[in-house]
Every structure is written in structure tokens, then in C-alpha cells.
Design goal:
Blueprint (H helix, E strand, L loop, with lengths): L4 E3 L2 H8 L1 H12 L4 H8 L3 H13 L3 E9 L2 E8 L4 E3 L20 H25 L9 E4 L4 H22 L15 E4 L12 E4 L20
Parallel strand pairs: 1-4
Antiparallel strand pairs: 2-3, 5-7, 6-7
Helix pairs in contact: 2-4, 3-4
Length: 226
């Protein structure tokens, strides 16, 4: 079972968003089970659970783990194909966010658009690498930092932008034969705390978007090119 996989097909996305099917996916991520076993856990007749399982199997969200005979009946044990799922913006291709439509390093919505592109692109790369049976070269950095003031946060962003800019200029080889382009993704945003969801407090620096973002306007910083 994969730790996480990306759903790109609109029909598969719709199937996963059904509350009952979402519950079944969660149960099957914990371990293989049959329709009869799941029926008691989700409070539905076995036939109805089997109907939902067939829909999930049709979209590749669950798969056959084993079969066993129980009297005159063959019981199918199903399992989730991943422990968790992420829906790619490709599932809503006609209205997926386009970060190239506008560039605003201080916009939370631009940050969302960048994050959506990250999910889309990495999901596509993972799918391709899996089919080719090859490893995908990626790297991510995640951490937290508490700023004493907005001024400190602004200074941090300036230094971060300048530092990344130096590295880009040092290693960028646009004319290198056989080279491969890589996207650099950096973000700064307030940490979301469960007890105060939506409130700005501690900030986190994480590899989830491209370009710095703060809730209060810092000094203008140079923009990095892709």
C-alpha cells in the first residue's frame, strides 16, 4: 500500500468524496476487510457496502487483497490502494488555479494557486515514475520558526529571498546540454493551530509554495524567476 497517492480522474475524485465511500476507504486503509465485515462498522447492509466497494475498485481506489471460501460463498477481502489520497487540480482541469495568471508574493490566494500547482505537478511526476518503475528525485524542507515581531519576519524573508537567489544564480545552467529544469518552491505562512484555526500566530517556513508570503507587508523583496 502506498502512503499517499494523487487522484487525477474526475470520476475517481467524485467517488472518493462520497461520505460513505470515504469511510470505507478509511476502514480499508487500516487493513483488508470484506463487505460483510465492513457492513457492521459503517451500519449499512452488506449488499450496499458491496455496491460502494465495486465503485471504488472500478476507480482504482481499492483492490483485491485476498479471497476465501465461507461455505458456498467466496468472500473477497479488499484493501485501500493508499493510506491517504490527495485530489489533484487536474480533476477540475477547466477551473484549476493558474499561478501564472498573476504574481503577488504577498497574496494568500496566489500561495494557494502555487500549492495547487505543486500537487498537480508532483502528482503527475509520481504517476509517471510509478509506471516507469523509476525513482523520482525530489526534496522537501519543513520546519517552524517563531518571529518576535513583524519586522523580524520581514528581515527573514529578505534574507531568505536573497540567499535562494544567490544559489539560483550559482547553479542555474540554462544552456547545459542534458540538463533538466527544476522548480524551486518556498513558502512562509502562519501555522494553523487546531484550537485556534484561522488565527494568525506562530509562522512556519515550509516547502509548499514559491515565493515568500506574509500577512503584513514587509519591505519589497526581489522576485525569483522559475
Amino acid at each position: 500500500m502506498l502512503d499517499v497517492t494523487v487522484i487525477e480522474d474526475p470520476a475517481a475524485a467524485a467517488a472518493s468524496l462520497d461520505p460513505i465511500r470515504g469511510r470505507l476507504l478509511a476502514e480499508l486503509a487500516a487493513g483488508p476487510a470484506s463487505a460483510a465485515m465492513l457492513a457492521g462498522k459503517v451500519g449499512l447492509p452488506r449488499q450496499k457496502v458491496n455496491y460502494h466497494l465495486k465503485a471504488l475498485e472500478r476507480h482504482g481506489l481499492v483492490e483485491l487483497a485476498d479471497e476465501r471460501r465461507k461455505g458456498n460463498v467466496t468472500e473477497r477481502l479488499m484493501r485501500a490502494t493508499a493510506a491517504s489520497y490527495v485530489i489533484s487540480p487536474l480533476a477540475l482541469a477547466a477551473v484549476q488555479p493558474d499561478p501564472d495568471r498573476f504574481r503577488d508574493q504577498l497574496s494568500a490566494r496566489w500561495l494557494l494557486a502555487l500549492g495547487a500547482r505543486l500537487v498537480r505537478d508532483v502528482g503527475t511526476l509520481v504517476t509517471g515514475a510509478t509506471k516507469a518503475r523509476k525513482r523520482l528525485a525530489t526534496y522537501a524542507l519543513d520546519g517552524e520558526v517563531r518571529f518576535a515581531s513583524a519586522a523580524d519576519r520581514a528581515a527573514f524573508i529578505q534574507e531568505l529571498t536573497a540567499g535562494v537567489g544567490v544559489l539560483v544564480r550559482k547553479y542555474d545552467s540554462p544552456d547545459a546540454e542534458g540538463g533538466r529544469d527544476h522548480r524551486i518552491v518556498v513558502a512562509v505562512h502562519p501555522t494553523v493551530k487546531p484550537e485556534t484555526s484561522g488565527a494568525a500566530g506562530t509562522s512556519a517556513a515550509s516547502g509548499t509554495s514559491e515565493g515568500p508570503k506574509t500577512s503584513e507587508a514587509p519591505p519589497v523583496v526581489p522576485e525569483l524567476t522559475d
